[in-house]
Design a protein that fits this description.
This protein is mainly β and 414 residues long. The protein is 3% helix and 43% strand. The chain contains three helices and 31 strands. The strands form eight sheets. It has a five-stranded antiparallel beta sheet, with no helix packed on it. Strands 4-31-30-29 form a four-stranded antiparallel beta sheet, with no helix packed on it. A hairpin with a 4-residue loop joins strand 18 and strand 19. It is globular, with a radius of gyration of 20 Å. The termini are far apart.
């Protein structure tokens, strides 16, 4: 099929289907999958980010915590006693090695110590962290995947967990969303492939599916695609596509989508142009465009997440920033410089106490959502072709966090 060998020094490159020429692919999204290698995904080294115009010189990691733009109308966080349980230092526990190319996304099981990873190698893998084996070279414990999901034709870019973790959903460059039944976590990883795991395929997008989000309130799945649309699905229905929001002409290409935690009838879509739109799922129309573009101009949003307990949207930007937006007014609540390179991913802990960010500067950062200060910084992945961390996640009910890297590794911290 023309792909280079799995272990050669050149990254695996897959032909992208139907990439629209009028919509150039955003950096740090699936544009890394060019058919021909270039000098890094951006065409230049990320070292340019080390020099910052704010101070006129080198910005250290310690200085970044002070490079924030405060705002008088900042919302206060109603913190619960759960804050004490997170007064800890996260330490690496497992390194998940099985994928042959970068891991684009991951999601935890709702109740069990398990997670699913989605990779550019075309597969998803289910990991049971309770099933460990002795590693070959040291005394540490290792984890093997208990199941590999195989059906996508090309890189898998997004994954979402369904209600009660009975189903999961994945999207990729093959334009299709696949609905999977999550296998038994105790299954033998060497059992034969079960074709019944793939329960449904959602057709409708005409280009790569970059983001997925699931809302259990009405069993709704949201997707965003390089075709310029955001779609709402009922994954259990034969006529599954409920609505399509075509925003390409006004806002450009959507790069990420999520449901508002405080109002599941609302979804939030972020765009390559730096815009963020609050969308009414029931009325199938936009409600409000949030003020997510910085004063300096457009800055692509790589991921959008919703605050678990407040009507606040949080965006991760290509310009190294994180912005907090009020869903009621559309105004910026807080803005801060968060990393030395593009902020690629975000995750909020279920209690709304901490925010985790990942970046191509190879670090994870844990932020206190109350005072917006960095509580811990972890160097988690090695850079590969100017990319490092693609996704981060909090476990919904256990003290576990995880990261997914361009180095084909997923790491779990306790």
């Amino acid at each position: 099929d023309g792909r280079p060998g799995l272990f050669c020094s050149v990254p695996l490159r897959f032909p992208l289907p139907l990439l629209s020429p009028e919509y150039p692919l955003p950096t740090h999204r699936p544009d890394q999958l060019f058919p021909f290698p270039i000098a890094g995904s951006l065409g230049f080294s990320s070292d340019v980010f080390i020099m910052d115009t704010i101070g006129g010189g080198e910005v250290s990691l310690g200085d970044l915590a002070d490079l924030t733009v405060t705002n008088d109308n900042e919302l206060s966080c109603d913190l619960s006693d759960s804050k004490d349980s997170f007064k800890k230092t996260w330490n690496p526990k497992f390194t998940l090695r099985s994928h042959y190319d970068g891991i684009r996304a991951l999601v935890f099981h709702h109740t069990e110590s398990a997670l699913i990873t989605a990779s550019e190698d075309g597969t998803l893998k289910l990991w049971n962290l309770q099933k460990t084996v002795a590693a070959k070279k040291n005394a540490a414990l290792d984890v093997e995947p208990v199941y590999a999901f195989r059906a996508h034709r090309g890189p898998v870019l997004s994954v979402a967990m369904g209600c009660n973790s009975e189903y999961c959903y994945s999207g990729g460059t093959d334009m299709r969303i696949r609905c999977w039944r999550v296998p038994d976590l105790g299954m033998d990883p060497y059992d034969g492939y079960d074709a019944g795991v793939l329960s449904n395929v959602l057709d409708g997008h005409t280009d790569a599916v970059w983001g997925l989000a699931f809302s259990p309130s009405k069993n709704r799945l949201a997707s965003c695609s390089a075709d310029g649309t955001v779609r709402i699905w009922d994954p259990s229905s034969s006529t599954s596509c409920l609505s399509t929001y075509s925003a390409g002409s006004e806002h450009g290409i959507p790069t990420s989508v999520t449901f508002a935690s405080t109002d599941p009838a609302h979804a939030v879509a972020a765009f390559q142009s730096g815009n963020t739109v609050l969308y009414d799922v029931e009325a199938t129309c936009p409600i409000l465009t949030l003020d997510s573009r910085p004063a300096s101009g457009a800055s692509q949003i790589n991921q959008v997440v919703s605050h678990p307990t407040q009507p606040v949207t949080i965006t991760a930007h290509e310009d190294r920033g994180i912005r907090f937006l009020d869903n009621r007014t559309g105004k910026v609540v807080h803005s801060m410089v968060a990393h030395l390179d593009a902020v690629t991913c975000l995750a909020a802990d279920p209690n709304g106490v901490f925010l985790m960010s990942g970046s191509h500067d190879c670090s994870l950062r844990l932020w206190n959502l109350d005072n917006k200060t960095c509580m811990q910084e972890i160097t988690a992945h090695r850079k590969k072709h100017e990319e490092a961390i693609h996704d981060v996640a909090f476990h919904p009910s256990k003290a576990l966090i995880a990261s997914a890297g361009a180095d084909a590794l997923a790491k779990v911290f306790i």
